[in-house]
Structure formats: C-alpha cells, structure tokens
Sequence to fold (248 residues):
Amino acid sequence: MVLPETVPTKINRQETPLTSQLEKKVTAYASVGAAKSILTCAVTASAAGIAVLALVPAAAARIIYTPAHESLVGLTLDLNHDGKGDIQFHQNDTATTSVGMESIWVGPTSSSVQRLNKVVATPTHAVALRAGSRIGPNRQFETNGVIYGDVIYRNPPHTVWFGQWGNGGKGLKDRYLGIKFTINGQFHYGWARISVSVNGDQSKSLLSGYAYETVPNKSIIAGETKGPNSSEEQGTLGQLARGSARRP
Fold:
C-alpha cells in the first residue's frame, strides 16, 4: 500500500520582539532549567559512583578464635585445625640431691615445615605480651623460648624463678604468647592466652584460648577474637563511599 504524498503546509511565522520583562523571565527560567539538569546529572553520577564503590568488598581479614582450657605440659597446639601441630610445649625436669630444676619450653614441632614456626621471644625467654599488643613482622621471633622456669635449692629450701611468665614466683594471669607459623608456605600470625599460677614451689600453666589471622603476613592484636582486623584495616573504596572515620 502506497500512501499519498503529503504536501507540507507552509506556515508564515512573524517574529515578535519580547518585552524586556518577558525576556528576563525566559532567561531566568532557562538558567534554572540548565542548573537543574546539571545538578541532576551530577547527583545521578555521584549515586552511581557510590553504588559501584559500595560493591567493592572490604579487606578479607578474618580472625579464627578457639577457646580452650588445657594444661601446657606436653601440649601440641594446632592453631588452624589442619591436623598438623604448629607449636608444642614441653617440660624439662632435672634433679640432684640438693637442687631441682623445672621449666616449660615452647617451640616448633619436628615437622620440616613446622620447624619454621617461632614465638615472640628474647634469645632465651618467651615474651609475656599484654592484651592489645601487636603481633606481626616487626616483632622479634625465636625458635625456642622458656615460658617459665624455676630452680629449687633444697638445703636450705629456696626457689629462684627465671623467665617473664614465672614473674619472680608470682605468676601471671591472661598474658599472650605471640606466634608466627606457616600455612601452605606462607607466614601467619597468632596468639595463645596463657596463665601461670605459683604456690610455693608448685606451678601450674594453663592455656585458655588461641587465635590466628587468616590473611598471610598480616598482624594480629593479642586478645582479638573477631575479624576483620579493624585495628589494622586499610582504606578501601567501600570505606570511601561510606566516609571513613578519622582518628585524632
């Protein structure tokens, strides 16, 4: 079907000059319209940008915490529950007719991989960290360290304590052992919460919980049991979209 041609009708338009007052109103209206259009575009773009930024996930830091209530004597600690011991505690006892010595040592297990594992320590003694201490690459780690030790002189009876955990025979409550260990060839950081109680020449050491950071080479704070590790969280696009808090 062919439509008949339509002959355009010529319309004669006569230009009529605007009055000055009307011209001002038209100009003002056009300006407001343009401004609204620009503002709408800006808001739309900004909202779209924030929506995109909000989709960016925060850092995947995660702390795995395990409560416990176990004696340290003869204990092998598997921080990430993969069936492989990471750190072990062993007791050394020696005695003569006049002197007795008892000590608890901590160090890596005998596995070739686990031998890389270490604890926060001086060259001879494991450090008793306080809650809130950072455990990470900047710490001094040693392969072995003394949790506590004591020497008993029997004649006359006298006890000498060495190491931070013995605390001169007073013991310590809820201090933290910093740990560096490997998972699939990468270093991770963790902590074990330990208390040492002393009664005369008798001592008792107790593990009450432990945790580790799942992100390789990322520090953990002694006592933290939940992730993400906000104390060391890096700025992300998601944070920028929400507005990051500032510290003084």
About this structure: Residues 22-56 form one domain. The mean pLDDT is 74. Residues 10 and 181 are 89 Å apart (CA to CA).
